[in-house]
Amino acid sequence: PLLDTTEVQLGIAWERLQSSSSHSLLRKHLTPDIYHLLKDRKTTSGVTLLDIIRSGIANLDSGVGIYAPNAESYSTFSPLFLRIIDDYHNIAAEVPFRISGARQPAVDFGGPTTGFVNLDPEGKYVISTRIRCARNFAEYPFNSKLTKKQYMDIERRVRWALERSLNGEAKGDYYPLLGMGEEVRKRLVDDRFLFKSGDRFLEAANANRFWPTGRGIFHNVEKTFLVWVNEEDHLRIISMEQGADLPTIYNRLVAALHNIEHNSGMHFARHPDLGYLTFCPTNLGTTIRASVHIRLPKLVGAGLLESVAEKYELQVRGTRGEHSGVEGGVYDISNKRRLGLTEFQAVRTLQRGILAMIEMEESL
Length: 364
Ligand code: ADP
Ligand code: CIR
Known about the structure:
Blueprint: H1 5-18, H2 25-29, H3 32-38, H4 49-58, H5 73-76, H6 78-88, E1 126-135, H7 148-165, E2 172-176, H8 182-190, H9 200-204, E3 216-220, E4 225-229, E5 235-242, H10 246-263, E6 270-271, E7 275-276, E8 289-294, H11 297-301, H12 305-311, E9 314-317, E10 331-335, H13 343-363
Antiparallel strand pairs: 1-5, 1-8, 2-3, 3-4, 4-5, 6-7, 8-10, 9-10
The structure holds adenosine-5'-diphosphate and citrulline.
């Protein structure tokens, strides 16, 4: 019989990956055994291994290389996902909650006095601070399998819900990408408020289809509370401002998130073992990335930035985000793990590491 085209394409993809020297987690964990175990599997709606690995095949310089087109992918293709998840999030086999199979503890944002401090009260190192998390609806597929109508439905639902449920500091308006003037869009991206367009990792994952339809941004007047709609995940919820006032930024996020989860009528995909589900497995669990934009010239000059970051479980990115370069000596440093710890602990990881880095910078 004639070979199904998916089968042919998957075979070609596999050979390209095998013969490459890619350093991605996909290359590391899609071993011949795992490949043969998964190559003929499909989710109920027809998601294949090819759909999952497309981005890492097209971009052999990926750090990770896989995305989950829907929630079911995490179980159908769990032998691959779990190896990559445990590697990225540094999930040790001896963690007590692993006994139950659960990698993610219950949601915990800590008490009202959260134990956070201003990381740089004199403003000598930290330029700005940002905390974001992700949410996806349980009743829609994730990004790469959304239809044009579903992108538009999600946008309409989110807009309606946010404009009604958010009050006080987080109250704001929604601005669709469709019809936005190019100057306005570019300004929002340059000012670090809006996602960029044309990300090649998302592109190869089929996650940029029908762009800019269904994509947009909600924000308050001050642009300290923002929600990205249908970029990588259905929602990215963000609290950010200039300086390093972590308690204020954290409390703003927690309050708005509480309203979104309890007063907006929206319900999000949460897995008993993996926490909140996301398109990219690096974001599972808490989904929290707490970051600072920071200058540490002495630490960088001494060649110590990467090793110190690793020691404190932090990740270093460029000034314009992941896969971007460093401009004016400004690094983006954030917690690397998002799964296997609580929301409070994820942000604490950033606090502990940045305080230590600043102390080192001052001692050099
Ligand atoms: P994400 O945080 O959503 O995973 P990126 O790494 O692409 O994705 O970052 C998104 C945007 O947020 C980029 O424009 C980046 O410069 C900006 N950003 C991240 N952290 C900070 C920060 N602490 N201060 C200001 N802008 C930030
Ligand atoms: C990579 O593998 O490098 C890209 N697919 C991005 C991985 C993690 N980042 C993300 O989800 N934003």
